[in-house]
Design brief:
The chain is α/β, with parallel strands linked by helices. The chain has a single domain, classed as TIM Barrel. It contains ten helices and ten strands. The chain has helices spanning 39-52, 73-90, 102-111, 128-135, 160-177, 197-205, 207-211, 225-231, 239-251, 262-278; strands at 3-5, 11-13, 19-25, 56-60, 95-98, 115-118, 138-142, 185-188, 218-219, 256-259. It has an eight-stranded parallel beta sheet with strand order 8-7-6-5-4-3-10-9. A two-stranded antiparallel ribbon has the order 1-2. Helix 5 (160-177) links the parallel strand 7 (138-142) and strand 8. Helix 1 crosses helix 2 and helix 9 runs parallel beside helix 10.
Length: 280
């Protein structure tokens, strides 16, 4: 797929370099503190990301770090919707909303969002699938074992890459059966969501297997624990490891990388693309 048309006349161009999705966490609980921003600060952070070359802004009002507590819909709406509305007045860049609640997703689409980035693969809220079908929204279907509260309590796989790939194809079929448009589905292997370090590394190494499904693939691994396990670095010191891991993901077929550090990853993608083009 070279292009994905989105609601509101916007689109994602997959014919060139990998797209960079900027993380803007509209909460006070996400694991990387500099990514947290509220209200006007969140809008400014998103505009800065656009200036740095982000192709998509991903707003989220509920932390999904390991051990995170559930946030009710009213609070999530309060955190996210005014920010999307304010950003949309200043930018036409595609907007994603990181939520697993249909009420929040619906309000976000009405405020100008284009993409529903749901860590439950549209499964937590029974109204999410019909909403995506009704509104023609693009949907990110992600693999997660468990919930954010318990997902890192001894997750086990025989073959993480194969099992994650099979799961994603099964939820794609469920989405298609419920009327979600085939040309608006994005897959996410869920790096760090109910996986051991070796599982995360294998998923990045074998990402091409998921990409062969024909659907665009999003990878979100920015500053995650497995990078610390490999490098020995705390969250603040994981930029270099993140760049290395995202370079491997791009080379193995990622279409979108979801990141905290936009400028550095935009430059990374430019160089990787230039090297690839030099061989053609």
């Amino acid at each position: 797929m070279d292009r994905m048309d989105l609601p509101g006349g916007r689109s994602l161009d997959f014919s060139g370099p990998c797209l960079v999705m900027a993380i803007v966490n509209c909460n006070g609980d996400s694991f990387f503190a500099p990514s947290r921003a509220r209200d006007r600060e969140a809008v400014d952070r998103a505009l800065e990301a656009e200036d740095a070359g982000a192709a998509i802004i991903d707003f989220g009002g509920e932390s999904t770090r390991p051990g995170a507590e559930y946030v009710d819909s009213e609070e999530e709406l309060r955190r996210v919707i005014p920010v999307i509305e304010a950003f949309r007045k200043k930018s036409s860049l595609p907007v994603s909303v990181d939520t697993r609640k249909a009420a929040v997703a619906r309000a976000a689409l009405e405020a100008g969002a284009d993409i529903i980035n749901d860590i439950s693969a549209l499964g937590d809220d029974p109204m999410m699938l019909p909403l995506c079908a009704e509104r023609g929204a693009a949907a990110v279907l992600m693999h997660m074992k468990g919930t954010p509260r318990d997902m890192q309590k001894a997750p086990m796989y025989d073959d993480a890459s194969a099992e994650v790939g099979e799961y994603l194809l099964s939820v794609v079929q469920q989405a298609l059966d419920r009327g979600v448009r085939k040309d608006r589905i994005i897959l996410d292997p869920g790096i760090g969501f109910g996986k051991r370090t070796e599982d995360n590394l294998a998923l990045i190494n074998r990402l091409a297997e998921i990409r062969r499904s024909g659907y665009p693939v999003l990878v979100g691994l920015s500053r995650k624990t497995f990078i610390g396990d490999v490098t020995g670095q705390g969250v603040a010191g994981r930029l270099a490891g993140t760049l290395a891991a995202n370079a491997a993901a791009v080379m193995n077929g990622a279409d979108i990388i979801r990141v905290h550090d936009v400028k550095e990853h935009v430059d990374l993608v430019k160089v990787l693309y230039a090297i690839a083009e030099a061989g053609n």
